[in-house]
Amino acid sequence: MRWLMKSLIAVITLSAMSAGSAYAEYPDRPIHLLVPYPPGGLVDTMARTMQEPLSKALGQPVIVDNKPGAAGAIATRSVAQAAPDGYTLIFGNNGPSALLPLVQKDIGYDPIADFEPISMIATAPMVMVIHQSVPAKDLKEFIGYALQNPGTIAYSSAGSGSLGHLASELFAHVAGVKLIHVPYKGSAPAVMAVLGGEVKMYLSSPSDTLTAGIKAGKVRLIGESSSSPSSLAPGAAPIADVLPGFDVLIWYGVLAPRKTPKPIIDRLNKAFSEVLAQKNMRDRFHSYGADATTSSPEELTRRIAEEVPKWRDLIETARIAAQ
User: Fold this and answer.
1) pLDDT at 263
2) Which residues are paired to 65 by β-bridges?
3) Sheet holding 201-204: strands in order across?
4) Which of 24, 64, 280, 287 is most buried, most CB within 10 Å of its CB?
5) How far is CA 174 from the centre of its chain?
6) Where are the beta strands (DSSP E) in the chain?
């Protein structure tokens, strides 16, 4: 019996040492960071900005893969089903990483049970623009115009269940107006839709393309979603100034498949923290309209869990569903 116990202890010790050695060697091949939207949007831009410094911090190439569709659900689901080895990650946000399962039935993943959060990446207010053809110079006038023309004003979003979709419906609900939702496959085409006049309103994440459109006079900036003025949206008054209590903030974070070992999660968390602590990275993110920020995995888990009750009532009241 004593001999058996010694043998068992030896086997357990060797197994632990082997596992520790394997984690110590991570990563030993390229890491794929999936972006659930097409190229050109804020998530894609931030991912590609981090790509080179992350590769240096981890000692292996970080490959940014765009996998758009279903408001981010396609990429998010594929990561949920990927091997939990730290080589396939998702760059998510409030929409696909928290809210989509409330809107899209049988989505194929649970935002909490199927992922291991790694770190927050950034936060940003949403910006609200209207096409230059709309006869309104500010938010109050736009609400008046929408009240006089119910069901005729279309707005774009990155897809059904995206945060832009939900925030726009929250705006419509609080303002008492009726709008038409036109979903696109990502924020980049949604921005092009409002710049080109295909739709008349857009409320979602900022981007270089949208900022250029504002400066060129193609669209008019009439509000931002945080409850107080933000330096990230210069010249935009809070929507809450007209609709008290309106307060929506976009957060972005990176997650791995469930059961990814903690040493790997910790290694990735450290790399993102090192990269986003660099001043040039923070400055570049700020120029995109986002504040670079990191967190512990536990903090990101709490952030995801808090989103569900916040939006469930609106989704049920406004009868928001996938389109």
Assistant:
1) 97
2) 34
3) 179-183, 153-157, 201-204, 127-131, 219-224
4) 64
5) 24
6) 31-35, 62-66, 88-93, 115-125, 127-131, 153-157, 179-183, 201-204, 219-224, 249-257, 291-292
Q: How many helices (H) and strands (E) does the chain have?
A: 12, 11
Indicate the Cα dihedral angle 310, 313, 314, 319, nearest 10°: 140
Residue 2's pLDDT is 56
Domains defined for the chain, CATH in brackets: 30-124+249-317 (3.40.190.150), 125-241 (3.40.190.10)
User: Tens of pLDDT along 104-129?
Assistant: 878 999 999 999 999 999 999 999 99
* Residue numbers of the chain with a pLDDT score lower than 50: 11, 15-16, 18-20
* pLDDT on residue 22: 55
**Residues 73 and 107 sit within 8 Å (Cβ to Cβ):** yes
CA distance 73 to 159: 10
Kindly state the tokens that stand for 133: 């053809």
Tell me which H or E stretch contains 15. Answer: helix 2-24
What is the per-residue pLDDT for 323? 52
Q: Which of 96, 92, 94, 48 is nearest to 225 (CA)?
A: 94
pLDDT tens digits along 205-216: 888 889 899 999
User: What stretches of 37-105 show up as alpha helix (H) in DSSP?
Assistant: 42-58, 73-80, 94, 100-103
